[in-house]
Design goal:
91 residues; alpha+beta; five-stranded antiparallel beta sheet; single chain
């Protein structure tokens, strides 16, 4: 049973790594499509968005984000992030 558990954890780890990679690839595309200006650091692992709320740090691999100006503006997921900042980028 021990080797089955080890194999299960290895597969789970591979799946999580793949999901992180996919989020790192997709999130910048979604931000660009929405017209949100950002600067990428550490090969896309950390994005800094320039928004009407000030700068927002976003880590697409984990989907975590937080505002530097307003600490109450923090959360998970690029969709929720876009919901927060999108009104300023719509014409």
């Amino acid at each position: 049973m021990g080797s089955e558990d080890s194999e299960m954890w290895r597969e789970w780890k591979k799946m999580k790594q793949g999901a992180r990679t996919q989020r790192r690839e997709n999130a910048p595309e979604l931000l660009e499509k929405a017209g949100v200006p950002f600067t990428a650091y550490n090969h896309g692992a950390h994005l800094i968005l320039d928004t009407h709320l000030g700068f927002i740090d976003f880590w697409p691999g984990t989907a975590k984000w937080k505002s530097r100006t307003f600490p109450e503006h923090s959360g998970h997921g690029v969709t929720r992030l876009l919901q927060l900042i999108k009104p300023a980028f719509t014409a």
